[in-house]
Specification:
Layout: H1 2-23, E1 42-46, E2 49-56, E3 59-62, E4 68-74, E5 77-82, E6 85-94, E7 97-101, E8 107-109, E9 126-128, E10 133-138, E11 145-146, E12 151-157, E13 160-165, E14 170-175, E15 182-183, E16 188-193
Antiparallel strand pairs: 1-2, 2-3, 4-5, 5-6, 6-7, 7-8, 9-16, 10-12, 10-15, 11-14, 12-13, 14-16
Length: 197
């Protein structure tokens, strides 16, 4: 069920935090994310489910899990109190996969990177802004055929002009930037798809 998956994800996140603390060379005895003053919750994302929790003086506070208390957490096992019933979650972490087993049923989770690489979530052929700046010139139109190295548009940043070029020959499928527009680093400016043949 969805509740089982969300509890398993919480257990996996707590086991991951316990593993990080066990491997820490400095202040390994402090709970993960501990602060003197309350701060933002710890966050962990798995394919299809996100977890947000905080460990404080009053114990575990987990978004979407009211009334769930942490009994114990180790890198390979987490015990959660759910409605005054203790549930033990056995956690086995593998590269790119976390397996969580409990009396509620087995769950497999795929951890998502905390800080994805820029461009890893954009369409193939996307031209990204290398830095924040202003678009001062658009050299091609949508649908135009471009060759490798051809200037597609020009950004101005720190009083310097920076040409953004096509990495390969192809067709400009979309042009998201316009002259005068301010763009952030990593913004998609255009998409160039290679021509077949």
């Amino acid at each position: 069920t969805e509740d089982t998956v969300r509890l398993a994800a919480l257990a996996a996140a707590l086991a991951d935090a316990a593993a990080n603390r066990a491997a820490a060379r400095v202040q390994g005895r402090l709970p993960s994310g501990w602060r003197n003053v309350p701060s933002q919750p710890q966050r962990k994302a798995y394919d299809g489910v996100a977890v947000a929790y905080a460990l404080g003086r009053d114990g575990l506070t987990a978004e979407d899990h009211p009334g769930v208390a942490l009994v114990s957490a180790a890198p390979d096992a987490v015990v959660l109190d759910v409605a005054e019933v203790h549930h033990r979650f056995a956690v086995a972490a593998h590269p790119g996969l976390v397996c969580v087993d409990s009396t509620l049923g087995p769950v497999t989770l795929r951890p998502l990177p905390r800080f994805p690489e820029p461009g890893s979530e954009v369409a193939a052929g996307s031209l990204l802004a290398p830095m924040p700046g202003s678009v001062v010139e658009v050299c091609v139109a949508e649908g135009a055929v471009v060759r490798a190295g051809q200037v597609v548009l020009v950004l101005e940043a720190m009083k310097m002009r920076h040409p953004v070029t096509a990495p390969a020959g192809g067709v400009v499928r979309s042009l998201a930037a316009a002259v005068g527009e301010q763009v952030d680093a990593g913004s998609v400016l255009a998409v160039v798809t290679e021509e077949a043949g």
